[in-house]
Amino acid sequence: MPSQSSSVATANSGPLSGIRVLDLSRVLAAPWAAQILGDLGADVIKVEQTTTGDDTRAWGPPFLQDGDEATFAPYFLACNRNKRSIAIDLAKPEGAEIVRKLAAQSDVLIENFKVGGLAKYGLDYVSIKKAAPNIIYCSVTGFGQTGPYAPRGGYDFLIQAMGGIMSVTGPAADTPGAEPTKVGLPAVDLFTGMYAAIAIQAALRHKDQTGEGQHIDCALLDSAVAMLANQSATWLMGGPVPQPMGNAHPSIVPYRTFPVSDGHIVVAVGNTKQFIALCDILGRPDIGADPRYQSSPGRKEHRDELEAELTQEFAKWTKDSIIAAMSQNDVPGGPINTVDQVFADQQVVARKMLEPTPSTAGTELPLVRFPAILSASPATIRRAPPQLGEHSVEVLSQVLKLPADEIAALCKRGVIGADK
Q1: pLDDT number for residue 9
Q2: What pLDDT, in 10s, does the model give residues 130-163?
Q3: Any transmembrane segments, and where (predicted)?
């Protein structure tokens, strides 16, 4: 029978303690979902191919050395903590049967194969449901299980383009050298993973109430469309087709980067009170009192004139001096940090976002904690990202209760791979 969730999770176990997740996914979107569940206390068993494992194990350099031979690549390190790795050859009938048996002992299965790709192994939803009638089976694909694009493979960059994100990102169209630009991180993969994790938890709640499992169909393109948010709402309400605006905001002014004497800062003024305070800081109360700028629609209408005046004033300040003055007067703004500066920022340090975690080999791995802080049932990092097949023997003996000689025979036949 599948594992049963605890009615009350302790502070050390996490709110999803007692939930077992079988993670057949690789790369980023679906592994990100599985990692979120693992951070929240679920027991996540990552199923990998015996020879290469997750594709992202090889996505370097750089590589972080772990012990004498093994290494970690950045992508894999970022989305595979709190998981146990079992290496299985799915193409062997015995291997597929092991997955079905593990599914029967699990609450959730996550996969991101192409539509229909697992059917040939007897590991699609219909087949798995026979072995695990109440399973929550989450499929993450580029375009979903239905529709004319369903058979296609989907990648973050492609979906950022097709989903409209690149059409509103980057310099304004009339800027020299402007072209459609992707977000500087795999935003669609990450948001799809988050949507999948939310959907899985909703399905777990439904299962608690009814005992019924279900199939979750999560698509990168659907997530990208949902993420258009205010941009799509503007057009759907009869507004113009949104265009790229660089660092400017389509509705709020001033809400962009400004050059100062030693670099750039971000100004994020959201209302008229903050705008007047900013003008006072800059020594230009006359701008704050200008009738053209007394409302958000007015500031938007006269954006070019207003921002030109503000740009002249910001140029008289250094980054540190203007940011300090804005902070003291409750005007939102701040520096544009590089990644190294992010982890040196006193707020990030105070919040302990970086959580060094030792691997099995003793290497300290630089991991970033789950961002939400739950006061009664906090997320934890209990396991470092695993080496390929690190837990094959452990999972087969503990979860499926297989004897040692049977496990050894499976390894000898190449059905199972086990980390030495």
Answers
A1: 36
A2: 999 999 999 999 999 999 999 999 999 999 999 9
A3: none
Cβ proximity of 44 and 18 under 8 Å: no
Structure confidence by residue, pLDDT tens digits, 300-311: 999 999 999 999
The CATH number that domain 255-343 falls under is 3.30.1540.10
Domain boundaries, the chain: 20-227+353-417, 255-343
Catalytic amino acids? 189
Whole-structure pTM value: 0.92
Fold (topology level) of 20-227+353-417? Rossmann fold (3.40.50)
Q: Are residues 399 and 105 in contact, defined by beta-carbon separation less than 8 angstroms? A: yes
Question: Identical fold at 20-227+353-417 and 255-343?
Answer: no
Three-state DSSP string of 218-235: EEHHHHHHHHCHHHHHHH
Looking at residue 177, its pLDDT comes to: 79
Q: Which tokens sit at 89?
A: 């050859």
Question: What gap in Å lies between CA 262 and CA 274, rounded to an integer?
Answer: 24
DSSP string across 90-157: TTSHHHHHHHHHHHHT-SEEEE-PPTTTTGGGT-SHHHHHHH-TT-EEEEEESS-SSSTTTTS---HH
- Tell me which residue of 312, 287, 314, 311 sits closest to 298, measured CA to CA: 287
Rounded mean pLDDT, 379-407:
96
The whole-number pLDDT of residue 321 equals 97
Question: CA end-to-end span of the chain, whole Å?
Answer: 31
Q: CA–CA separation, 98 vs 192, rounded Å?
A: 28
